[in-house]
């Protein structure tokens, strides 16, 4: 987990790690993953969470903005969950 230009506290990293770990229940062949946390400097107080998951043959990516890292993480994990299910369905269809 990478926090860009700030130090994420343990509570936040544990919360996000717990959310991301649940993704493995939807697809058990995840090779590796990266999570990036960023404060947006565009005049708004939004925060961005990016999730990159490496699965055999491709990389899945989701990015969400929200007023808090927790809300952004929830949205990014949900988007990633949908991608994993779609990817898994494609794999089993072949």
Distance N to C terminus: 33 Å
Overall pLDDT confidence: 93
Q: Structural class of the secondary elements?
A: alpha+beta
Number of helices: 2
Q: What radius of gyration results from the CA coordinates?
A: 14 Å
Describe the structure.
Helices cover 39% and strands 31% of the residues. The protein is built from two helices and four strands; from the N terminus they run βαβββα. The protein has helices spanning 10-21, 69-93; strands at residues 2-4, 32-39, 47-55, 58-66. It has a four-stranded mixed sheet with strand order 1-2-3-4, covered by helices on one side. The protein is elongated. The model has no long low-confidence stretch (mean pLDDT 93).
Summarize the structure in short:
The chain is α+β, with helices and mostly antiparallel strands and 94 residues long. The chain is built from 2 helices and 4 strands.
Draw up the topology in text.
Elements: E1 2-4, H1 10-21, E2 32-39, E3 47-55, E4 58-66, H2 69-93
Parallel strand pairs: 1-2
Antiparallel strand pairs: 2-3, 3-4
Helix pairs in contact: 1-2
Search tags:
94 residues; alpha+beta; 4-stranded mixed β-sheet; 2 helices
């Amino acid at each position: 987990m990478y926090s860009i230009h700030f130090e994420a506290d343990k509570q936040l990293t544990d919360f996000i790690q717990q959310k991301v770990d649940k993704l493995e229940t939807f697809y058990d062949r995840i090779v590796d993953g990266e999570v990036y946390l960023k404060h947006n400097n565009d005049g708004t107080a939004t925060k961005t969470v990016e999730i990159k998951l490496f699965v055999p043959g491709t990389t899945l990516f989701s990015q969400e903005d929200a007023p808090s890292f927790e809300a952004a993480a929830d949205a990014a994990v949900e988007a990633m969950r949908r991608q994993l299910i779609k990817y898994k369905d494609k794999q089993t269809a072949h």
